[in-house]
Amino acid sequence: MPAVQVPQVLDLFDRHTHLLGVLAILLYRFVGLADMDIITYTDVMDNYLKAIHLPPHKRLDAVDVIEENIKKISKIHIFLRFMPALPRCTAIDLRIAAQLRTAQAGLAIERYRLAAGKLPDTLAELIPTYLDAVPKDPFDGKELRYKKLETGFVVYSIGEDGSDDGGKEKPQKRARPPALWDVTFVVLRKESQGQR
């Protein structure tokens, strides 16, 4: 085929592809699939909104149930293919909440240490002078964990995996297989004087 005729063939192909796309959309609307899609998408988003209003430690489970239900829905629903990554967003939201809460508790521990000359034995010792209440772990609804270390301390949340890894920090590099870790706030000092 001469080179001059190739653009004409491609142009013809583009017109047919466009026409087929328009016909598919018209058929999609005509048989009611567009309306069904909108209803399904709206129901799914409504369920996500309900999940967001749950206590933080119950959100991930609720979002996981929604995701499992989406997998059971027919693949013909086009809108579901454009669903935002809400489970990931929920996990990130909870991780940020855990980071803020561990930092809040960690700063209260440091204020206590500066005033008392030692670390507290429990987070409850910080109430009411340094904290109104012991912050809750957004991943399980229990109080944040606290552990004295040889040269400091760690305050931590169990994190997304739901297991208490003893305040293990997230590795700097991705581990193979993925390592288990907690959301931590760690304070280490070169000298351990005044920390008993």
Q: Would you kindly provide a written description of the structure presented here, covering whatever features stand out?
A:
By secondary structure, the chain is mainly α. The protein folds into two domains: 6-90, no CATH class; 104-188, no CATH class. Helix content is 47%, strand content 9%. It has four helices and three strands. Strands 1-2-3 form a three-stranded antiparallel sheet. A hairpin with a 2-residue loop joins strand 1 and strand 2 (152-157). Helix 3 runs antiparallel to helix 4 (86-116). The longest helix has 31 residues, at 86-116. The termini are far apart. Residues 6-10 and 192-196 have low confidence and may be disordered.
Descriptive keywords:
196 residues, mainly alpha, 2 domains, 4 helices, 3 strands
Computed structural class: mainly alpha
Main sheet specs: 3 strands, antiparallel
- Whole-number average pLDDT? 80
C-alpha geometry: elongated
Q: State the helical fraction.
A: 40-55%
Q: Using the CA coordinates, give the radius of gyration.
A: 27 Å
Q: Count the DSSP helices.
A: 4
* The number of domains: 2
Strand content: 5-15%
- Unreliable stretches (pLDDT < 50, length at least 5) are 6-10, 192-196
Spatial sequence of strands, sheet with the most strands: 1-2-3
What is the first-to-last residue Cα distance? 87 Å
The strand count comes to 3
Secondary-structure element order, N to C: HHHHEEE
